[in-house]
Design goal:
single chain; alpha+beta; 2 domains; three-stranded antiparallel β-sheet; 7 helices; 33% helix; globular; kinase; kinase activity; HipA_2; HipA family kinase; transferase
Length: 257
C-alpha cells in the first residue's frame, strides 16, 4: 500500500458537522478532498486511526473514498477570515490526511435504506475488528453515492491507542459496543463472511498499511517509543486480534440475536 501524496492549494469550505472541523480543499491535482487536520482537537492519533482503518477497509474490498496524504502550507491561513480556521491551518502545517470528496453524496438513512446482508455483515465485521465506536444510528458515518454505501470517518476507531503504552494483552477483547452498530440488524451473514474477511488480511498486508503512518504522527507527549516501535506495536495488536477474532465475531452475533 502506497498512499498518494497531494498538496492543498486552496481552502474551500469548512465541514462543521464534527468536532475535528474537517474541510473541503482543492489540491494540486485539481481534485477536491475532505481534509482531516492533524492539529484538530483529537490530535494526530485520529489521523493514525483514519489511515490504518482506511487501509484495512481497502484491503477488505469495502467501498470508501480514496485516502491520500495531504501536505498543508500554513500560508493558506492568510486568505481565511475566521481566526479559528486560521489557527487550525497553522497548527496542522505539514502532513495531514484527506479523502476524495464525493459530490452529491447523501448521508445513509437507516429508515429509508436497506443494505445488502452480505455487505452489512462485512462492514459490521470490519468495525468490530477495528473497535469503531462511531457507526451508529445517531452518527452513521456512511454515505450513499451513486446508490452505493461509502464508509467515511474512522478517526474514532482503534480507541485503545489513546494513552497507549504498546501493551497488546487486550488485543482479543470482544467489542461490546458493536450492539449499537447501525447496520447490525441487516448483518445476518457474520459467520459466513468471517473466514473470507480474515483471509484478506495477512501479516504482510497489515504491516504494509501500518508502515504508511508518517513519523510526525507518532511523535509527541503520548508516544511510548520511537515511530518504528509504535508501528510494530500496532502490527502486533492487529495480527493478534485477527488470529483470535472469534471473540469479537461471536460478540457481534450475540448482539444481533
Amino acid at each position: 500500500m502506497t498512499l498518494p501524496l497531494r498538496a492543498a492549494t486552496r481552502y474551500v469550505t469548512p465541514l462543521r458537522e464534527g468536532g475535528s472541523m474537517p474541510a473541503v480543499v482543492e489540491a494540486d491535482d485539481d481534485g477536491l478532498y475532505v481534509l482531516k487536520f492533524r492539529g484538530a482537537g483529537q490530535g494526530p492519533k485520529a489521523l493514525v486511526a483514519e489511515l490504518i482503518a482506511g487501509g484495512l477497509a481497502q484491503a477488505l474490498q469495502l467501498p470508501m473514498p480514496e485516502i491520500v496524504l495531504m501536505e498543508l502550507d500554513p500560508d493558506l491561513a492568510r486568505t481565511e477570515g475566521d481566526p479559528e480556521i486560521q489557527d487550525l491551518i497553522r497548527a496542522s502545517a505539514g502532513l495531514n490526511l484527506a479523502m476524495d470528496y464525493l459530490p452529491g453524496a447523501v448521508n445513509f438513512d437507516p429508515v429509508a435504506e436497506q443494505p445488502d446482508a452480505e455487505l452489512a455483515s462485512r462492514i459490521v465485521w470490519f468495525d468490530a475488528f477495528i473497535s469503531n465506536v462511531d457507526r451508529t444510528a445517531r452518527n452513521t458515518n456512511l454515505l450513499v453515492w451513486h446508490r452505493q454505501l461509502e464508509l467515511i470517518d474512522h478517526g474514532a476507531a482503534l480507541y485503545f491507542h489513546h494513552g497507549w503504552d504498546g501493551d497488546t494483552t487486550n488485543a482479543a477483547r470482544p467489542f461490546a459496543l458493536i450492539r449499537d452498530h447501525v447496520l447490525l440488524r441487516w448483518a445476518t451473514r457474520l459467520a459466513d463472511v468471517d473466514a473470507e474477511m480474515a483471509a484478506l488480511l495477512g501479516d504482510d498486508v497489515i504491516g504494509g498499511i501500518v508502515a504508511q503512518v508518517p513519523d510526525t504522527w507518532l511523535e509527541g507527549p503520548d508516544s511510548f517509543g520511537d515511530p518504528a516501535a509504535q508501528r510494530a506495536a500496532y502490527v502486533s495488536y492487529l495480527t493478534q486480534r485477527l488470529a483470535r477474532r472469534e471473540g469479537f465475531v461471536q460478540e457481534a452475533i450475540r448482539a444481533r440475536a
